[in-house]
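We treat protein structure as text, and this decision shapes the records that our systems exchange. The remainder of this section carries one protein's record, kept here as part of the documentation:
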Amino acid sequence: MTIGFQEVQFPPAIAYGASGGPAYSTDIVATGSGYEQRNIRWAQARGSWNVGSGVRDRADMLVLLAFFRAMKGRAYGFRFKDWSDFSTADQPIGTGDGVTAAFQMVNLYVGGPVTEIRTITKPVAGTVAIQIAGVPEAAGRWTVDTTTGIVTFTANQPSQVAGISNANPCVITTTANHWLQTGDSVNLSVIEGTTRLNGNRYAITQTSAFSFSLNGVDATGFGVWTGGGAVNTFPQAGEAITASFEFDVPVRFDTDSFSASIETFEMQNWSQIPIVEIRV
């Protein structure tokens, strides 16, 4: 019987004492002259940990025993907080093209000219923040699947410009109800006259059903609007999409045997609790 993955986190207080981290698989052949030929077998690292040192007392052991039984040893995968690497900020996850709605979360690890792209499939709910072109995007404009790490933007909400004020802050008037809310962000394009606004994204404050202001934009020195203008909420061509978030690692126990020693009634020990990362 094939067993799947449980969206439950390994007890984080016990995980705090883990030792371990990323591992690679590399074949090395040494030639007779001392040179080496190296073959990378895994494109990404695979983590492994021992969290035995996280068990401090009988209460911890009972929590661990219950979790081990629930996961049936190596049978079920589960989430694990690697306290040495569990959060990241402003990670690029894609570039808008005006069409693509879904983007996979990743974390980049850079060493000189080499970059490893780690796919993140288990972001932590409530920790994700998204920016488009450096502008925070309101949570209502996107969703994140915390079981796959895919961020999906809601459908575009376009409007046409009917007027632009040379004021501080700059106010945009639309030809129809724009349905935008304070905290949304918009991309402006094809504006005539007030061309300095073209190709930029701004956080907005709703001022009425037919107008909104651009937060922090003083347009008193801009050109006078003479016509045109498109307003889009969806990521437009060339706009960088970044994410800040916490994440778990998908893992499983790497043993089917619970082997604990009883030192005293209140002091019990399981010195080896092997956990290994899995691909999901």
In short: The two ends are 17 Å apart (CA to CA). DSSP finds two helices and 25 strands in the chain.
